[in-house]
Amino acid sequence: MCARSCGETGTGLPAGSALIGDWLLQTLQISLAAFRIAGGLLLFSIASEMVFGVRIRREGEAAEQAVEEHVRNIAAFPLAIPLMAGPGAITATVLLAGHARGDLLLIAALVAIVILVAACCVTAFAFAGRISRLLGMTGNIVLSRLLGVLLAALAVQYVVDGVRAILTG
User: Fold this and answer.
1) Best label site of 31, 72, 98, 155, fewest CB within 10 Å?
2) Do 154 and 43 form a contact (C-beta atoms < 8 A)?
3) Do residues 43 and 151 make contact, with C-beta atoms less than 8 angstroms apart?
């Protein structure tokens, strides 16, 4: 039940971002370059927390609080919303939808990819215990920090691309 609920929430937010993100940016008069920079800064913040181990501790505390309040909330927060449909996923889908420039076939392909990624996440959640035991404590920490460095690089690339677009624009 929890994995299914995470999948629904984790699919709905990015897919909705893909469908209305470009319209929302145009309505608010936010350029893709500005959104790229903002998304990059948010992602860099998350990446730095991953690299320095702050994120794991904070997510653990949030999970404990969600369990204390209502067990059903754990599917939406902290699993689905910041993990599957956080700033990175929303930024990526809005930027990719913006590059589609209204082409319905490209938007449909993007939504299909969002659904595929969510299905992969739900599958990974189903096997998370086994994967965690296989990696061990050290493997989990090393993997989290390595992925944090990769996320930081992606975040910096978003900012660089946004600045480049503004300067050439």
Assistant:
1) 72
2) yes
3) yes
**CA 118, CA 115: separation in Å to the nearest integer?**
5
pLDDT (tens digit, 9 = 90+) per residue, 60-119? Answer: 665 566 555 555 554 544 455 566 777 778 888 888 888 887 788 999 999 999 899 888
Q: At what angle do helices 2-27 and 87-100 cross, to 10 degrees?
A: 50
pTM of this structure? 0.70
Token duo for residue 20: 């209305």
Closest CA to 140 of 132, 151, 128, 149: 132
